[in-house]
């Protein structure tokens, strides 16, 4: 911070270290200006800013989400593309083609043509996506905002903001930056914030001006008149954390320091609601704001097919090297046996290298150049099909599915394990208050089958205003111990809140008990009115200790203004509240067993339960605690020049202090809330299990609730044997080992009689993963994983969000070949979703953090049925076919040159027209496989959902594995052998052509082979197709036609063109030879695929022996399907044969006439010569 900006107060209020403080890293260099504006926030110091003095040394408020600009596009794009080994490989091949000694293209790098086409297509796609980002950035940066200057607010642009600026945000306006709340038009210092753009939640949240700041900044002008500054943490990505302090000049007390917490901190992207305006201090700008630091980038996940493909590419490349070495050696042998001059040479290494280079160029297309771009484009269109599917959208059509990682499309077809959250994922997260227990008495009948709460006696007492004191206290407890926002519309109070539980219990207190929460006044007085008796209760809220996933409870400290006493109310999970009860209290001793019995009954119905507890605080007790709590909130490390906060110590200190006051509680009541299952959840889970997928449910609920929800959702069937692993953290190691062994033996015995479901608690998992000796941890986890393989389903209860991720990581480490899918709807599921092979988020009531962090986002759990069984299986089948087909057609293309080497002494002579050859992958064979991957369907969606056994093919990697890959590789090699050898025998008959007076030309043989390759490649696509599609047929026909057009266009002028040669006596040989080779190659391919199909059928019957009747049906269905397909293939073949015979007859007469004319011409020439 510049000293001149501190004005006259700098020496009075800042230490020497603070005067010299900089809000940016000290280690700068002359290239700093060229660095990205989102420099690493971890390298920044904590911040000190003076109010209304912008710090020009820190980045402005412009955001830059675009990847490229005019200056860096070309170098950055080329660097990204040539970081891929395949592109580097083809670039090297292109450079090698310029070496004349080994070039097969007359020194021209012709392979750069298809490479350039691929790079251009990818560049166009990247530019299109980046232009949209530029447009968004420009619109965002040029929005208007009122900025404080010279004690007034003037309009400015978002891009111009700096930390230290004072800004004014009006109602319904979005916030341009992260800011500290200093003033609100609301008399109570509150403002209402909508965070829909951050987390998808539409419930309003309250932000409050700290009390001391509100007392001094009574008007907006006071902010400009008083000297103040803020100290706070460096930029970080934690949305719900903020630590700092705000110092301001108080006339009476001098400089006072006020702790800042998330309640006074508002994030960029939020929208101001129901408040006329607020004034805030800009804390973070631009790419340092929390929403920008949390922007989710595409994670480097790779599908199993891609991983397998990369492994096979390495092996193919090794095969290529070996073949090139062998051919080079055979060429040397041929030269030694046929050339005396060559035999007399002393150095054979150079000729070997030249030959090796020539063969490497000949086989450069062993790796298909178009494979990656074809896969990317196909996956993009497949993703669009999912997004536009109306069945995958919500019932009202407003919420549509999202595909955020289309690179994982085929992974959806190989999922073996699903890890699912419960609340909001299997259930609707629409809560209904069912019953409660108050001081041992149960109100409401939790198993009456009726909707909502049902207790006529209590309802009668409420209507008559004759509530007992404890009943009245219960409704007041529900009304106070929550974090809801009260909105007043049309003289009615509407409740909103972050927690559905809070809204449910407060709404129950209003609708049944008649206790209405009214808005608190500017002094923080909360008013609750009994609308039946019109009696009002006044409370001053002193502290709110918020709920967190780790704490599993929330508490509120308040003063009853009528009784002049301070109370603490706490509500939370039973496992936490029970631990904080006063063990010596008689009420707790009497109620604990009754409460536990009530909780068990509610759990059997699948209800969510909460315990309510309270205590009375003495004034001195609260004052002492409040001093410690305030001190912990402003904990600083004075030894560091940058005043770094000791994050971990601070959190530990706060937790320790809150634990001091949240103890010795008196058990008061307990509640039961129903959360119904989503539509078709049991049917979906049964289908997925029949498909061979094991279901794991991970929930924070207690064991009994988890088991009941498991039964309702069909994760556990009624005839399942339930085995449990439940032990405490202080359990003896030998006892734990004995329990694991017992469960293992039980599972081994029972699995042959009935199916098993395993239940394990979070404490048990914690025990197994946190042993002092790593060897013990490994042994326990290995035993646990062995048990899980013997059961049908697993339920983990009482697990934290951290443990959800731990179980995913554990599973992936112990079962590396199995594919996992994690599905959830809340922020606590994000880590689990990110950790799985495939993450699926549900756009639910708990926000959209899970959906934004996922690879695929859906609206309901039941849509997982179609996403996996139909889309997943079809994507896996078709994308496997893309990879296999691309390698097959390239083997078919390059290997005829190997077998042709037996006739030319392995000289490395290039067989094809070089220009036509380079268009093979891009033009002649790319369209049919792309159309196949988008439009082909083996079965209808309804059939696959009703017959989930077909999904087993993906789980067992039956469509793409090393066996299948090398089957197609060697099938292509064998067909190439047929083409390479027989084509030479057909066209290299010198005697036949010499009789006609024409020489033999290499081009004709090569182009004859290439025409067969193009024809067979385009026809082979029908062996992958499982459904008739006119688009695939049409694209294959057009591809073949393009080949002949290009062949005629690009042939060298120094030789006879192919069609000229055909007319001059070789048409019959060309057509008959092509029919013969085409038929032989297809016969080979057909035989191999039929034998492989029989193998697959036998595998099905043997592997799924439990479903033998269903498999016989599948077997018969497959046979009928294949007969139908092969009949169509042979009909198509005979149509082509008839076409060729018809053409043969026509061209026979044409050729006969031409030969007659040539004969007559020669006779005339001989007659003239004789004369």
UniProtKB/TrEMBL annotation:
<dbReference type="GO" id="GO:0140326">
    <property type="term" value="F:ATPase-coupled intramembrane lipid transporter activity"/>
</dbReference>
<dbReference type="GO" id="GO:0000287">
    <property type="term" value="F:magnesium ion binding"/>
</dbReference>
<dbReference type="GO" id="GO:0016887">
    <property type="term" value="F:ATP hydrolysis activity"/>
</dbReference>
<dbReference type="InterPro" id="IPR006539">
    <property type="entry name" value="P-type_ATPase_IV"/>
</dbReference>
<feature type="transmembrane region" description="Helical">
    <location>
        <begin position="1098"/>
        <end position="1125"/>
    </location>
</feature>
<feature type="binding site">
    <location>
        <position position="608"/>
    </location>
    <ligand>
        <name>ATP</name>
    </ligand>
</feature>
<dbReference type="Pfam" id="PF16212">
    <property type="entry name" value="PhoLip_ATPase_C"/>
</dbReference>
<feature type="transmembrane region" description="Helical">
    <location>
        <begin position="915"/>
        <end position="935"/>
    </location>
</feature>
<dbReference type="GO" id="GO:0005886">
    <property type="term" value="C:plasma membrane"/>
</dbReference>
<feature type="binding site">
    <location>
        <position position="804"/>
    </location>
    <ligand>
        <name>ATP</name>
    </ligand>
</feature>
<feature type="active site" description="4-aspartylphosphate intermediate">
    <location>
        <position position="421"/>
    </location>
</feature>
<dbReference type="InterPro" id="IPR008250">
    <property type="entry name" value="ATPase_P-typ_transduc_dom_A_sf"/>
</dbReference>
<feature type="binding site">
    <location>
        <position position="829"/>
    </location>
    <ligand>
        <name>ATP</name>
    </ligand>
</feature>
<feature type="domain" description="P-type ATPase N-terminal">
    <location>
        <begin position="59"/>
        <end position="104"/>
    </location>
</feature>
<keyword id="KW-1133">Transmembrane helix</keyword>
<feature type="binding site">
    <location>
        <position position="547"/>
    </location>
    <ligand>
        <name>ATP</name>
    </ligand>
</feature>
<dbReference type="Pfam" id="PF13246">
    <property type="entry name" value="Cation_ATPase"/>
</dbReference>
<dbReference type="InterPro" id="IPR036412">
    <property type="entry name" value="HAD-like_sf"/>
</dbReference>
<feature type="binding site">
    <location>
        <position position="699"/>
    </location>
    <ligand>
        <name>ATP</name>
    </ligand>
</feature>
<feature type="transmembrane region" description="Helical">
    <location>
        <begin position="356"/>
        <end position="378"/>
    </location>
</feature>
<dbReference type="InterPro" id="IPR023299">
    <property type="entry name" value="ATPase_P-typ_cyto_dom_N"/>
</dbReference>
<feature type="binding site">
    <location>
        <position position="423"/>
    </location>
    <ligand>
        <name>ATP</name>
    </ligand>
</feature>
<dbReference type="GO" id="GO:0005524">
    <property type="term" value="F:ATP binding"/>
</dbReference>
<feature type="transmembrane region" description="Helical">
    <location>
        <begin position="1030"/>
        <end position="1050"/>
    </location>
</feature>
<feature type="transmembrane region" description="Helical">
    <location>
        <begin position="1131"/>
        <end position="1155"/>
    </location>
</feature>
<dbReference type="InterPro" id="IPR032631">
    <property type="entry name" value="P-type_ATPase_N"/>
</dbReference>
<feature type="binding site">
    <location>
        <position position="701"/>
    </location>
    <ligand>
        <name>ATP</name>
    </ligand>
</feature>
<dbReference type="GO" id="GO:0045332">
    <property type="term" value="P:phospholipid translocation"/>
</dbReference>
<feature type="binding site">
    <location>
        <position position="571"/>
    </location>
    <ligand>
        <name>ATP</name>
    </ligand>
</feature>
<keyword id="KW-0560">Oxidoreductase</keyword>
<feature type="binding site">
    <location>
        <position position="423"/>
    </location>
    <ligand>
        <name>Mg(2+)</name>
    </ligand>
</feature>
<feature type="binding site">
    <location>
        <position position="828"/>
    </location>
    <ligand>
        <name>ATP</name>
    </ligand>
</feature>
<dbReference type="InterPro" id="IPR023298">
    <property type="entry name" value="ATPase_P-typ_TM_dom_sf"/>
</dbReference>
<keyword id="KW-0479">Metal-binding</keyword>
<dbReference type="InterPro" id="IPR018303">
    <property type="entry name" value="ATPase_P-typ_P_site"/>
</dbReference>
<feature type="binding site">
    <location>
        <position position="825"/>
    </location>
    <ligand>
        <name>Mg(2+)</name>
    </ligand>
</feature>
<feature type="transmembrane region" description="Helical">
    <location>
        <begin position="1070"/>
        <end position="1091"/>
    </location>
</feature>
<feature type="binding site">
    <location>
        <position position="421"/>
    </location>
    <ligand>
        <name>Mg(2+)</name>
    </ligand>
</feature>
<feature type="binding site">
    <location>
        <position position="422"/>
    </location>
    <ligand>
        <name>ATP</name>
    </ligand>
</feature>
<protein>
    <recommendedName>
        <fullName>Phospholipid-transporting ATPase</fullName>
        <ecNumber>7.6.2.1</ecNumber>
    </recommendedName>
</protein>
<dbReference type="InterPro" id="IPR032630">
    <property type="entry name" value="P_typ_ATPase_c"/>
</dbReference>
<keyword id="KW-0472">Membrane</keyword>
């Amino acid at each position: 911070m510049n000293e001149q900006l501190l004005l006259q107060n700098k020496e009075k209020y800042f230490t020497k270290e603070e005067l010299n403080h900089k809000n940016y890293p000290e280690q700068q260099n002359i290239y700093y200006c060229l660095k990205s504006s989102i420099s690493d926030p971890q390298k920044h110091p904590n911040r000190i800013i003076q109010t209304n003095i912008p710090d020009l040394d820190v980045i402005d408020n412009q955001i830059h989400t675009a990847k490229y600009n005019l200056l860096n596009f070309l170098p950055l794009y080329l660097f990204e593309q040539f970081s891929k080994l395949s592109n580097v490989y083809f670039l090297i091949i292109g450079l090698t083609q310029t070496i004349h000694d080994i070039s097969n293209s007359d020194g021209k790098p012709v392979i750069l043509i298809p490479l350039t086409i691929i790079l251009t297509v990818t560049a166009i796609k990247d530019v299109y996506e980046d232009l949209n980002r530029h447009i968004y950035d420009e619109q965002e940066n040029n929005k208007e905002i009122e900025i404080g200057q010279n004690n007034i607010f003037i309009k400015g642009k978002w891009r111009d903001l700096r930390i230290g600026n004072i800004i004014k945000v009006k109602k319904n306006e979005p916030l341009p930056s992260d800011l500290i709340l200093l003033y609100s038009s609301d008399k109570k210092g509150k403002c209402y914030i909508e965070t829909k753009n951050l987390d998808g939640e539409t419930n309003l949240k309250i932000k409050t001006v700290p009390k001391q700041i509100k007392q001094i900044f009574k008007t907006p002008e006071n902010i400009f008149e008083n000297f103040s500054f803020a100290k706070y943490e460096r930029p970080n990505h934690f949305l719900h954390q903020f630590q700092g302090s705000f110092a301001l000049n108080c006339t009476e007390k001098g400089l006072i320091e006020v702790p800042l917490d998330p309640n006074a901190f508002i994030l960029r992207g939020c929208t101001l609601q129901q408040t006329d305006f607020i004034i805030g201090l800009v804390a973070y700008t631009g790419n340092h704001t929390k929403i920008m630091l949390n922007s989710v980038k595409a994670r480097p996940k790779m599908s199993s097919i891609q991983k397998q493909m990369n492994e096979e590419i390495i092996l193919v490349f090794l095969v290529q090297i070996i073949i090139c070495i062998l051919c080079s050696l055979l060429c040397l042998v041929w030269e030694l046996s046929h050339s005396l001059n060559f035999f007399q040479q002393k150095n054979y290494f150079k000729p070997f290298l030249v030959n090796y280079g020539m063969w490497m160029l000949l086989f450069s297309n062993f790796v298909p150049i178009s494979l990656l771009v074809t896969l990317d484009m196909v996956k993009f269109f497949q993703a669009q099909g999912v997004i536009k599917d109306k069945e995958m959208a919500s019932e009202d059509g407003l919420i549509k599915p999202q595909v955020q990682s289309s690179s994982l499309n085929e992974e959806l077809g190989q999922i073996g394990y699903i890890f699912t959250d419960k609340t909001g994922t299997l259930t609707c997260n629409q809560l209904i208050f069912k019953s409660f227990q108050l001081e041992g008495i149960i109100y409401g009948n939790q198993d009456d089958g009726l909707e909502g709460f049902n207790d006529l006696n209590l309802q009668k007492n409420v209507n008559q205003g004759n509530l007992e004191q404890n009943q009245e206290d219960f409704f007041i407890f529900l009304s106070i111990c929550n974090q809801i926002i009260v909105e007043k519309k049309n003289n009615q109070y509407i409740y909103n809140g972050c927690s559905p539980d809070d809204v449910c219990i407060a709404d129950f207190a209003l609708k049944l008990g008649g206790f209405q929460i009214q808005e608190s006044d500017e002094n923080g007085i909360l008013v609750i009115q009994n609308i039946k008796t019109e009696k009002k209760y006044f409370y001053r809220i002193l502290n709110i200790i918020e709920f967190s996933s780790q704490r599993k409870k929330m508490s509120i400290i308040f003063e009853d203004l009528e009784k002049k006493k301070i109370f603490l109310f706490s509500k939370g999970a039973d496992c936490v509240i029970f631990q904080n009860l006063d063990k010596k209290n008689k009420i707790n001793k009497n109620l604990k067993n009754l409460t536990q019995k009530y909780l068990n009954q509610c759990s059997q119905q699948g209800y969510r339960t909460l315990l309510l507890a309270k205590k009375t605080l003495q004034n001195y007790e609260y004052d002492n605690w409040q001093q410690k709590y305030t001190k912990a909130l402003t904990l600083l490390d004075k030894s560091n020049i940058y005043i770094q906060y000791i994050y971990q110590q601070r959190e530990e200190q706060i937790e320790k202090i809150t634990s001091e006051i949240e103890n010795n509680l008196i058990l008061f009541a307990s509640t039961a809330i129903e959360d119904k299952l989503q539509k078709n959840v049991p049917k979906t889970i049964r289908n997925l299990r029949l498909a061979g997928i094991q279901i794991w449910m991970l929930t924070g609920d207690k064991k009994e609730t988890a088991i009941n929800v498991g039964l309702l959702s069909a994760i556990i069937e009624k005839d399942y044997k339930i085995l449990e692993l439940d032990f405490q953290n202080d359990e003896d190691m030998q006892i734990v080992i004995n329990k694991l062994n017992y469960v293992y033996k039980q599972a081994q015995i029972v699995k042959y009689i009935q199916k098993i479901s395993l239940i394990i608690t979070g404490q048990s998992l914690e025990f197994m993963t946190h042993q002092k000796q790593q060897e013990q941890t490994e042994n326990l986890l290995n035993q646990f994983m062995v048990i899980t393989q013997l059961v049908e389903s697993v339920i983990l209860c009482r697990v934290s969000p951290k443990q959800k991720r731990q179980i995913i990581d554990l599973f992936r480490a112990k079962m590396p070949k199995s594919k996992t899918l994690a599905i959830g709807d809340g922020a606590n599921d994000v880590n689990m979703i990110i950790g799985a092979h495939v993450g699926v988020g549900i756009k639910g009531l708990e926000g959209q953090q899970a959906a934004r962090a996922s690879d695929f986002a859906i609206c309901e759990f039941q849509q997982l049925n179609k996403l996996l069984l139909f889309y997943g299986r079809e994507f896996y089948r078709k994308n496997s076919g893309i990879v296999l087909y691309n390698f097959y057609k390239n083997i078919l293309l390059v290997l005829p040159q190997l077998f042709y080497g037996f006739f030319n002494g392995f000289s490395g002579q290039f067989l094809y027209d070089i220009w036509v050859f380079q268009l093979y992958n891009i033009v002649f064979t790319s369209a049919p496989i792309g159309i196949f991957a988008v439009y082909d369907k083996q079965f209808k969606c309804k059939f696959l959902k009703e017959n989930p056994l077909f999904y087993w093919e993906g789980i067992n990697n039956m469509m793409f594995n090393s066996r299948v890959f090398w089957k197609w590789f060697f099938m292509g090699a064998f067909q190439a052998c047929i083409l390479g050898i027989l084509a030479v025998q057909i066209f290299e008959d010198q005697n036949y052509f010499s009789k006609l007076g024409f020489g033999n030309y290499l081009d004709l043989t090569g182009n004859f082979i290439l025409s067969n390759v193009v024809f067979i490649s385009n026809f082979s696509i029908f062996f992958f197709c499982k459904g008739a599609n006119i688009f695939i047929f049409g694209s294959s026909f057009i591809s073949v036609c393009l080949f002949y057009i290009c062949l005629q266009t690009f042939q060298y002028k120094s030789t006879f063109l192919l069609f000229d040669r055909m007319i001059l006596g070789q048409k019959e040989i060309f057509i008959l030879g092509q029919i013969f080779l085409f038929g032989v190659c297809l016969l080979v391919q057909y035989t191999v695929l039929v034998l492989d199909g029989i193998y697959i059928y036998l595998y099905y019957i043997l592997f799924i022996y439990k479903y033998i009747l269903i498999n016989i049906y599948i077997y018969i269905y497959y046979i009928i399907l294949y007969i139908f397909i092969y009949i169509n293939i042979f009909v198509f073949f005979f149509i082509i044969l008839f076409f060729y015979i018809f053409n043969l007859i026509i061209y026979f007469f044409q050729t006969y006439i031409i030969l007659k004319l040539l004969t007559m011409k020669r006779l005339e020439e001989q007659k003239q010569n004789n004369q």
